[in-house]
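Why this split exists: single-chain examples teach little about how molecules sit against one another. For that reason, every record in the complexes split bundles all components of an assembly together and asks for one structure covering all of them. Below is a record exactly as it appears in the raw files.
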Amino acid sequence: MQSNLYAVYGASGYGREVMPLARQQLAQAGVAPDRLVFVDDAPGPAQINGQRLLTYAQFLAEPAAARHAVLAIASGGVREKLAQRCTQDGVHAWGVSAANVVRMDAVALGEGVILSPFVTLTSNIRIGRHFHGNIYSYVAHDCVIGDFVTFAPGVHCNGNIVVEDHAYIGTGAVIKQGLPGQPLVIGRGAVVGMGAVVTKSVAPGATVVGNPARPVVCA
Ligand code: UDP
């Protein structure tokens, strides 16, 4: 009988960080290590860090009972495009979490979410599809995070914050907590620069930097 095939889609920086987590997760589930591969659309070596590298076409051609892919590419736009492609081809979205992730009460995760080591999700949190929580990030109580949102390492997302779809939060950013029923909102597609201290809501599509974070005005 054919077994399932699993892919880390994206074999660059973040993909190589996600692969060991995927390997560990599958080992715990009793899946043979050779059923896990990298997939990337750019040409590369036959293997990366001991795992085979396939093109997407090769991944689809490989005999398998079912195919699963975790999208380990930092760009939310690319993830959305690849998620659509995978759905069309019958490839299942796959979520990968580090073993030491802390997850408290009533945390709802969408499909395809990646939680890197030392991520903490406290209580009463909703997170959408294909979210990336990079190392040492946290999401505190009563936050709602959209689809294809990316947290770089060390993001401090405090309580009662809404982060809309496709927002990108840079390394070490701190977002001030909102109030119950009056959340601080990071708008759709907004970018928060590394180290920014966000004290008020950010408009959709805006880029903010600094402390306190202010919009970058293009000349
Ligand atoms: N990539 C891909 N298909 C796409 C877009 C990107 O396979 O449609 C791959 C790309 O070849 C690269 C990786 O995704 O290997 C993205 O790596 P990058 O260094 O840009 O960022 P990372 O997400 O690893 O931080």
